[in-house]
């Protein structure tokens, strides 16, 4: 039971972590919370359902399609909602919040129209494969999700610290104006950031579809809120923090259900962040003091 | 870039102004005959339904059922029904506004809906106060018809459906230990759970564990692992089909093979669509049996699928019947008068509908037979 | 005569608008001291449940219930406000949003008191109680040529209108007082304000708990207008909706909150005829608006323009 619940928690936590990585990347560079990230994730999941279920494409192609679609969405999001707000006088931190909420409302209702309101099953052969160890059944999908989340985290960390583009991105995150003076094409970097974050949302979407076999237009909100809690938990804009925060949340939700009262499951994320904000406002891994953006 | 936005802003403002005027204009309809002309009785029925948001699937099914019934009824002559459909977005206050709008229209004879019990609790007292008959087609929670004289429903309450299903299931499987799982943040599933728990206690079943889940959740593994380890003979799941199907799918994957007993909201062909083979072993009590050989049902299935591209569920069927019940009462009332209609409606007895023989009891609740069905080999069959 | 003009549907919408104005102000007040609070939905729930439970179980008059409900929410605001001082900006927003969710989950789970998700039915409805009262002293709505439901909704509307005007007057007065100026100096620059000798802790907690009080008031009134409440009335959606009222209308001026609440409550009603698409339109509208006027529709510049326009027309002064 303990081991089984541990695996459940790690699977859930890995998904939370991938979603949170997208949030944290955008926050780290732009200093804004992208409230539409959950819905982009949801669209990614639907692309997976449609391509594998209706069109009968193989899984790898579904991944590609999902990444492409969510990247385009990310590009549109940046061009039409975030860019107009940047560098404008009198723009408070509220404006991008509201504007991305607008996008999330739009995407949720749009996909409701396109795909219908109910849950859609996600059928792939792959999701059925499992290995048995003693009395324990582990699905390959569960392992894959965990591995992908680790790869994404490490890849992102290396990319940020070693490559030129990654360095430019960090410079932009540090100070937009200085970076642009130093010859960084900040516009390109920011667009790239939003696109990468969105594509990660798309990947997470497909993974959720495979793991839980349910995709619905409303799934973005629930997971989006958790993602929000995680980036605070792990420290805003911190890649490692997002990963660890995600795993902690996934495990604690699972163990709350297993050994406590499942009715409080949705509250645990926020109880944790309220506590952490009061004890250590910068988050578990954050180094900066919490300050208003 | 800036120019574009400024232009679009102007466009938006103009659009808003246009919408404002359009709204105030549209509320004054000019076809004003609720009278009888040429032998047919004209009547406008207001519908409040959940058409946008998380539960829109239910509202969609309901309005589709109503529309199908409407076209048939109008074809038959005798009565000619006009449906005025308003969206409630699943929120009590919007439902109340929508109902208020309908009630204020003198031509509206009676109301069908709203979809959710939470909305219904807010709307029904108001309709009762205004003397307008209101009927719920999907509101199965306790205490609905007790709200007032003018409040009816044709959806069988959980208190009737669930114990029947449980008794039959226990009878066949000889189950002694049961596990419960339910959505604790939804009225329908919560009220279903209360019934299940009470019934289980009365039947002397041992409850090994009680688990909850919340709306929008997609991972039920933690709860199911716990249930699996408690090793029940039967799982009582009070869930709407959307969540319920996913729960079954995840349970089967995990190796839980015991049957599920579900509530009213669990009964839908969509369960098969979502869960596939994993749906085998679901037992529900319901007035609606989609695979029935009854020619009425067969015909309804055919027509519904033709019109809306998918098989009807019980929400559609109950809504379909509801409009027929209204039409029947209207015929007996003889004219589209709120008071006469109310009297006729309350007297509805032995109405032969799609769902079988139907009557109202003295408070406006349902009197009808309940069928128990199960999913076997990917199909709904009558439970034996 | 009079009866022809009184449309309960319109009055109902108007009543919701008034409640939403209170909610919008409950975000505006903390924001005027630089605190972005998304906890309004939670505080609203506290006010609503407190008042509903008191009136149902102890037969207290509605106005006592409403006052106690608002006061309890206000006290909770103080308790939450003090530790929240360490947070600002986005952090405070998410923490308060989380607080709202936690409160909702408690409502769902504390079944012995709140009946869980089934919600509280049979809450005395303000208008209907007044109707009873009026009848007891021998006044029938028919004496004014009104139908019962017209009377009920008219009374609700009038009471709410008085309360809302009172609230706006209070906030307006406060803004132009020492307190209001302290709020805005804290919003501008906390450190500078502190060095000027302004008691930051006191004023920040004051504005935060005022917001909580107003949200609680609105919630209690909501309960007695609806007659039925359940935890889903106080969810994330409500919190976001309230925030959007304030930001859409313009978060710098109180008139912005009022305008936002009126406009955005009307829009879904106006868009009823395109009901299936109304939230899509709503979403697009938010995006366009933020791109064009990120500070909200109304701001100080626009208002002063209006004033100048008026003055030049009036010619005097």
From TrEMBL, chain A:
Its main location: membrane. Keywords: Amino-acid transport, Cell inner membrane, Cell membrane, Membrane, Transmembrane, Transmembrane helix, Transport. It comes from the Bacteria. It is found in: Cell membrane. The chain crosses the membrane at residues 12-33, 63-82, 94-116, 136-160, 189-212, 267-285. CDD domains: TM_PBP1_LivH_like (cd06582). InterPro entries: ABC_transp_permease (IPR001851), BCAA_transport_permease (IPR052157). Belongs to the binding-protein-dependent transport system permease family. LivHM subfamily. This is Branched-chain amino acid ABC transporter permease. The lineage of its organism: Bacteria, Bacillati, Bacillota, Bacilli, Bacillales.
From TrEMBL, chain B:
The keyword Signal applies. SUPFAM superfamilies: Periplasmic binding protein-like I. Coiled coil: none annotated. Keywords: Amino-acid transport, Signal, Transport. Residues 43-378 form the Leucine-binding protein domain. The keyword Iron does not apply. InterPro entries: BCAA_transport, Leu-bd, Leu_Ile_Val-bd, Peripla_BP_I. Residues 1-29 form the signal peptide. PROSITE patterns: PROKAR_LIPOPROTEIN. It comes from the Bacteria. Belongs to the leucine-binding protein family. This is ABC transporter substrate-binding protein. It comes from Ureibacillus galli.
Automatic annotation (TrEMBL), chain C:
Keywords: Cell membrane, Membrane, Transmembrane, Transmembrane helix. It is a multi-pass membrane protein. It is found in: Cell membrane. The chain crosses the membrane at residues 12-31, 38-56, 62-82, 89-107, 151-172, 212-230, 242-267, 279-298. CDD domains: TM_PBP1_LivM_like. InterPro entries: ABC_transp_permease (IPR001851), LivM-like (IPR043428). The keyword Transmembrane applies. This is Branched-chain amino acid ABC transporter permease. It comes from Ureibacillus galli.
